[in-house]
Design brief:
Number of domains: 1
Shape: elongated
Number of strands: 2
Number of helices: 9
Strand order of the largest sheet: 1-2
Radius of gyration: 18 Å
Strand content: 5-15%
Largest sheet: 2 strands, antiparallel
Distance between the termini: 25 Å
């Protein structure tokens, strides 16, 4: 059986939450949201260079794979923080294994040059679906938003993240 190209992993995290940090979590995340915006702009530029390099080589270069996996892992860490699925303040670099909710990615594999060439056309159905669901690098979709809002109120009231809410939040990440 082959490994999945990408998967979310979760290690046990304490469910207790400080009411003060829960209340101010959206404000505490502002530096991360600015950093995510800047990193997204860089990812768009790197994506164009990586597309050309992949078209020529037939495989995503290692430097691009490391950049994109760190970028996506950072998004997972930040989403888990904003949805109260994990409690610690996330780092800014997307280091593997550094956060209770993490993403694991397989090594890059050879690509068909024709599918690489037409990737900009082939991505449109996925982009339309992601836009309809409100999921993009700079936004959270409808379901995660609902889970996050309910979790915010529950964490404020009880100072504990219920295991079911945590599972739902991790599932939406």
């Amino acid at each position: 059986m082959t490994a999945l190209p990408a998967q979310i992993s979760r290690r046990e995290d304490e469910l207790a939450r400080s009411r003060l940090t829960v209340f101010f979590r959206p404000l505490l995340a502002l530096p991360h949201l600015v950093w995510l915006f800047l990193w997204t702009v860089a990812a768009l530029l790197v994506g164009i260079v990586a597309w050309v390099a992949t078209l020529i080589r037939g495989q995503l270069p290692d430097w691009a794979h490391r950049f994109f996996t760190a970028f996506l892992r950072y998004q997972v860490h930040l989403s888990a923080y904003l949805l109260f699925a994990a409690n610690p303040f996330p780092g800014f670099v997307g280091a593997p294994g550094s956060y209770p909710v993490d993403a694991e990615y397989a090594a890059p594999e050879p690509q068909n040059r024709w599918t690489v060439f037409f990737r900009f056309v082939l991505v449109y159905p996925a982009l339309i679906l992601a836009g309809a669901l409100g999921a993009s690098p700079l936004s959270i979709g409808l379901l995660p938003s609902v889970v996050g809002i309910f979790a915010w109120f529950v964490c404020l009231a009880r100072a504990v993240m219920p295991r079911g809410f945590q599972e739902a939040a991790v599932g939406t990440v």
